[in-house]
Amino acid sequence: MELYGRAPRKSWPVYCFDLLPPFGQGKNERMRERDAYRAAGSPDVRVKAVADEDAIRGNVYALLGHLLAAPPDADMLETLAAIDPPSGDRSLLTAAWRMLGEAAGRATPVALRDEFQALFIGLGRGEVVPYGSWYLTGFLMELPLARLRGDLQELGIERQAGVREPEDHAAALCDAMALMIGGDEPVAVARQAQFFGQHIEPWMGRFFRDLQQASSAHFYRAVGQLGEQFVEVERRAFGMEVPAAGERRPDA
């Protein structure tokens, strides 16, 4: 991967897991199949607020990628259920963390396997479609995917052997951002912002809102809430503007 220098940027007020990156040890077989870019990491997972903003952001992306790639097992549910955000923080993001912890406390691995199947796999297609091309064009494997592959190649990021999902899967994009932020060769924030603005910001917030509204979503409604709020935090931190209702983007 090409080395990029760091650039000054605004603060990201995000509470997250203290995951020793990269996140991913102990995954089940389906998770290993669907996990796009992550290598094996430490099983030591503790819930806390982390001072290092880059580690925080990378860990949120890693967590979202993990949950969107496969349903969490019993150990992960126990960890999520231990989430205890600061009581004085009334932000929407902190509320989303609290909702995720409560949802994890009610969930079981068996129920989550069924929920994940209904949401993302289904009979022919799941209730939600977690691909950028689908949201941006209404079809799979379209031009947005080709552009994404070009950017990933330029960044030196490629799919692991055996991964069948296209690179514009929401989990894969979260993995890519986690790598850019917390990998061995971190990418400059300006380049992260460019990647985020081109491949995540235009559609992933809508995906997370659809996930919250899906009839099969119970635990994953909280995942969608966290994802939506985190994408919004990233958008504001990167200084991006949202087009007014009915306004087209310049590249649309």
Please give a structural write-up:
The chain is mainly alpha-helical and 252 residues long. The chain has one domain (16-237): TorD-like. Helix content is 52%, strand content 3%. It is built from 11 helices and 2 strands; from the N terminus they run E-H-E-H-H-H-H-H-H-H-H-H-H. The protein has a two-stranded antiparallel ribbon. Helix 3 packs across helix 4 (92-106), helix 4 (92-106) runs antiparallel to helix 11 (219-237) and helix 10 packs antiparallel against helix 11. It is globular, with a radius of gyration of 17 Å. Residues 1-51 and 243-252 have low confidence and may be disordered.
Indicate the low-confidence ranges by residue numbers. 1-51, 243-252
> Which band does the percent of strand residues land in?
under 5%
Mean pLDDT comes to 78
Which strand order do you get reading across the main beta sheet?
Answer: 1-2
Rg of Cα set: 17 Å
Key terms for this structure?
single chain; mainly alpha; TorD-like; 252 residues; two-stranded antiparallel ribbon
Summarize the structure.
With 252 residues, the chain is mainly alpha-helical. It is built from eleven helices and two strands. The protein has helices at 29-34, 53-69, 74-81, 92-106, 109-121, 132-137, 143-155, 170-182, 189-199, 204-213, 219-237, and strands spanning 16-19, 45-48.
